Structures are given as C-alpha cells and as structure tokens.
C-alpha cells in the first residue's frame, strides 16, 4: 500500500498548480494539526494573502492523479540570508520557526539575497498518514530546493511523537536514541535517514498566546485553573493565568541541516 500510494502521487510546486493554493488550507489537510497551532502570529505573516504568492516556487502540493483537484499533502519553505557576511545572523535562532519566518520576510522586503532555505512544514491529510507520504514530500522538498540553486536546507522540526510526553523535558526527548543509534522520534528519524544533521534545540520556536476564552474555543477544554495545563497535541504544557486572562504555549523544536549536493 505504502509504495503503491507514494508512487502514484504527483508532487508539483504552487507555481505549477496555483489553482490548488487555496485548497491546501481546507479542513482535510488542516485537521492534521491542532487548532491552536494555527494562531501563531509569525505564521500569519507568511501565509497572508500577497505574501504566500511570493513563495510559490518554494511550496509543494501532492495529488492523486485519480483526483487531481483534491490535494492530499502540502509543504512550505522560506529562503533567507545566513552567514553571508551581509547580515548579523551567525547562528540558527532559538526562536526557530517564528524567527526564520521573520528573517525571510525581512530579506524579502529589504531586497537582501537569500542563500539558504528553511522548511516550515510538511502536512499530510490524516487519512494518508503512516504511508510514507511525509517522506515523499521531504524528498520532493530537497529536490526542489536543489533545483532552485540552494545547497543548504534547514528545518525547525516538530517531533511528531513528543505530544505523547508533554512533561518530558525537550532536551531529554531529543537526545533519546533507539538501539540502532537513530533518533527515537519517527519524524526526526525520517530527516536523519535522508541525510540531515541535528544542529541544536530551538527552545521557543513557536509562541501562541491567547485569552482564556480563545483557548477554550481552540481546544474545547475548560481552562478553569491557573498553572500548567496539558493540551492534546501540545509538546509541552500551556502556561495558564486566569488572573491575567491569558494562556501561552511555547513550543520547542529541533533544528536540523540538510546539506544538498
């Protein structure tokens, strides 16, 4: 099933399939992540109308030829300047996903030439997860970045199984290995097998803040006491303050580096 499915899927850039750029944000694919993750302000900058169109060559969509108007997976990247002698960026940011989006947009608006690319997401419709589609999209992303003339692809990874252990310190989880020496987490393992090198932890890669009412709407949970709250899909506890009427989620990620030949 897995090889048959991945061999059948066709992956294209949004420059090639602009007609699908809106459809990939439909519920079929969006449901792959918790609702609260769609409320990161930095993400809203990248996915805004008029901005995302500037990155059509860096976005990918997968379809089954039997249903060519129904996307089943999407992937997005952002190019940015790094260690180029023209910016002060000497290290990958602790702010991870949020920061690299801001860096990419800053370069875009200032006309600064990017020399590397960061992956932002690979998302697969839940009905096809576990069949190698994410691996297919990662391969397509690497090939596309290489086609565009870049030799370095970075990624602030969200370990897909960390949400099962929200109280485990992220550094401890990220360091965990299987008996064969590969990373414990399946998604991190896919990247390492593809040739990625683990670089560092991004301790505050995504920050999602909202009122108590907003968090109740996003999660369906009561949020009826202050302190740490465990939320399905979150990699770490949510910081809740009823007194200040807000809750804040700080998500750690893991920076990896794909050197493309």
Polypeptide structure, described:
The chain is of the alpha+beta class. It contains 8 helices and 9 strands. The protein has helices at residues 2-8, 27-30, 41-46, 96-110, 133-147, 170-175, 186-193, 212-219, and strands spanning 10-13, 59-64, 67-80, 116-124, 152-157, 197-210, 227-229, 238-241, 246-259. Strands 1, 2, 3, 4, 5, 6, 7, 8 and 9 form a 9-stranded mixed sheet that branches. The longest helix is centred in the middle third of the chain and has 15 residues, at 96-110. It is globular, with a radius of gyration of 18 Å. The two termini are 31 Å apart. The mean pLDDT is 96.
What characteristics describe this protein?
alpha+beta; globular; nine-stranded mixed sheet; single chain
Instruction: Name the average pLDDT.
Output: 96
Spell out the helices and strands N to C.
Answer: HEHHEEHEHEHHEHEEE
Structural class: alpha+beta
Q: What composes the largest sheet?
A: 9 strands, mixed
- The parts where pLDDT drops under 50 for at least 5 residues are none
- The shape is globular
Task: Write the SSE topology.
Blueprint: H1 2-8, E1 10-13, H2 27-30, H3 41-46, E2 59-64, E3 67-80, H4 96-110, E4 116-124, H5 133-147, E5 152-157, H6 170-175, H7 186-193, E6 197-210, H8 212-219, E7 227-229, E8 238-241, E9 246-259
Parallel strand pairs: 4-5
Antiparallel strand pairs: 1-2, 2-3, 3-4, 5-9, 6-9, 7-8, 8-9
